[in-house]
Amino acid sequence: MKSLIINIDDAGSSDAVNKAVKKCYLSGGVTGISLIACGERFREACTILHDLGKPEAGVHLTLTGRFTPCTKPSSAIETLTHKGSFAGNYWGFMLLYAQKRLRPEQVYLELSNQVKRVKEEGFRVTHLDSHEHIHMFPGILDITIKLASEFNIPYVRLPLENTAVIRKRFSIIDFLRHAGLKVFSSGAEKVMSRAGIKCNDSFLGHFHSGRIDDDILDFMLENLADGVNELAIHPAVFPPQLLKESQACRNAQKELDTLISGRWKRHADAGKVRLVTHGEAAG
Hints:
The chain is α/β, with parallel strands linked by helices.
């Protein structure tokens, strides 16, 4: 049987994402959520989920994006930050990693504090994933698995994307991103399996990140692998003026419209795919 988790990443990062989370849950367009514990609107996201009666959430482990860390004082994790915040993006983090400037004990301290913060808000943590998939880095994957074991979290995302998706609106730049992540993700399933941690069988949403529309989502669902598939998506609600000024904002709105339009649900209604939560997938 083909199962599908539809997960919204970055909850708690902004008001725009939080509004999208609420809209998607109310429309039935999402089965999972991943919270950025160090996000500026983290508590607002928690309130939304509690008001919706959602007691489960994932932790979107974060070491990039210029977020302010959970660990205080930030000097306790000085190898992870610059002027009190994380690296701006994946490339900045990769440079720190390649230069071996990151101290594993500081990575563990910050990521464990992120998990603790989500649990302190009353959620049962069902899964771990990460901002820009940094948990796939060797060494950081080991820390992620350690956290999953210590906090009894049954599921960790494996962003090993189904190569079939690249046939839809192929892009060289996206292919290079896809190939790079595939290299980092190779072998991770065996590592997680040895630790008794469940993961998805196939992943979707990286190659087409930021531009998923009805046609792309249909294509994904028509080409699902057997077993558990996880789709990571990044919808948001932005003011009209910002939509005019930012292509990225327009894409986020497009992904929201795709989720709440309901066109994709015919695959589930026809019995071709079963929508599941992370808890159900790991159970």
